[in-house]
Amino acid sequence: MRIWFFTHYFPPEGNAPASRTAEHCRRWVQAGHEVTVFTCVPNVPCGVPYKGYSNRLRKQIETIEGIRVIRVWTYLAPNAGTTKRIANYLSYMLSALTASLWQRRPDIILGTSPQFFCGWAALLASYWKRVPFVLEIRDIWPESIVAVGAMKNGRLLSILQFLERVMYRSATHIVTVGEGYRKNILSKVDVQKRSSVITNGVDIEHYIPFKTSGEFSERYGLQEKFVCSYVGTLGMAHGLDVVIRAAQILKKSGRQDIAFCLVGDGAQLESLQKEASEKGVDKLVVFTGRLPKEQIPMVLASSNVSLVHLKKCDLFSTVIPSKIFETMAMGKPIIMGVRGEAQDIVLGCEAGIPMEPDSAESLVAAVTRLADDTTLCHKLSQAGRQHVASEYNRDILAKRYLDLLRDVVDSKSTDVSHRSTEASATITENDMSNIPHSQHEC
Fold first, then answer.
1. Can you list the alpha helix ranges (DSSP code H) found in 135-203?
2. Could you point out which of 93, 213, 223, 437 has its C-alpha 20 to 30 Å from the C-alpha of 149?
3. What is the residue-wise DSSP string for 365-386?
4. Mean pLDDT of the chain
5. The whole model's pTM is what?
6. What residues make up the domain containing 84?
7. Together in a domain, 372 and 291
8. pLDDT band of 150, cuts 50, 70, 90
9. Among 6, 46, 11, CA closest to 296
10. CATH of the domain at 55
11. SS3 61
């Protein structure tokens, strides 16, 4: 098949949407398919092009692991401020759609959230090229930005919600990363028969438990510490001020043997750093900034446990953070600060322990329990690795996704053929003598 994928994020960006898309596309290329990705220049989360890239009006084409990547101009903005972010999303939609018009017709087009203007670019391209459109939902947008207080304009929200429903109804098929997302969509539109769940997963050949040299710990002053790491975006939705408050409690109780390591960048980085300094816990809360994706296994290997956390919000109970699979593959216990399906996965296979989202006291109780019980840590580590290897192997998930794409293409072709046959049959059955002579000639 010739597959097009519209995505706002792609490597060398290392966030979850970029990783999921790249890992699937790489495997599809290896299976003999032709994959083209329409994306931006890498700039997340600061809104500044990565070294070696420039944000030019003229599209830029490169090949990454056999994937043809077309990078288009967008209005770049950091991950903060609703107006600028929407301008960023809209500019991508227009640029990506324009760049796609002159490309050779594909067999199928995919568009992925978190923001649905990316999905709209794919939808409009599918209309132009007359091919099926698969919409991948990784985030219920715009509800997610409302949930963190980033949008309060009721009129704008109503428009976005209308566009969201139109997009769901227009998709040939919808793929979500969790059942919670699928249920949310089904509560708005009836797409029961054309929706599927393909979860996130992990490359178990890349994320393998290993013993570190200690270089990472020495670099950030974490030697002789029980390290609880958070790896990912430091954004509004993640509620990481809970870490600062937990560090204050640990400091007051004299637990200097426990430290938190926040790995990543985002809209809240500077405010969190400032708060840690003002509260006097900057020795217990270490910030590394954004690190290359290839260094994340080393970060996890250098940690004792990993924190997965989102703010306490009903909508976030549908989220399944991809970092849980990477952490389990590395054989590290998880402190689970996300409710819903994600927590069910982690606790169900005994790969971690829960905490109450937004509760510093609950985080302290969880991290001290693990720090004081090496037997429990080892048990959780072993269970997590075994579970992802059998249930969330990226190779298996990518093949399942590819099979679904084949089915969508085949069923669409069958529908077109069936409609053509029906139309021919209808004309044949009509009394041709009743059709005017001029219409016969036409």
1. 143-147, 154-170, 179-186
2. 93
3. HHHHHHHT-HHHHHHHHHHHHH
4. 88
5. 0.81
6. 2-201+394-416
7. yes
8. low
9. 11
10. 3.40.50.2000
11. strand
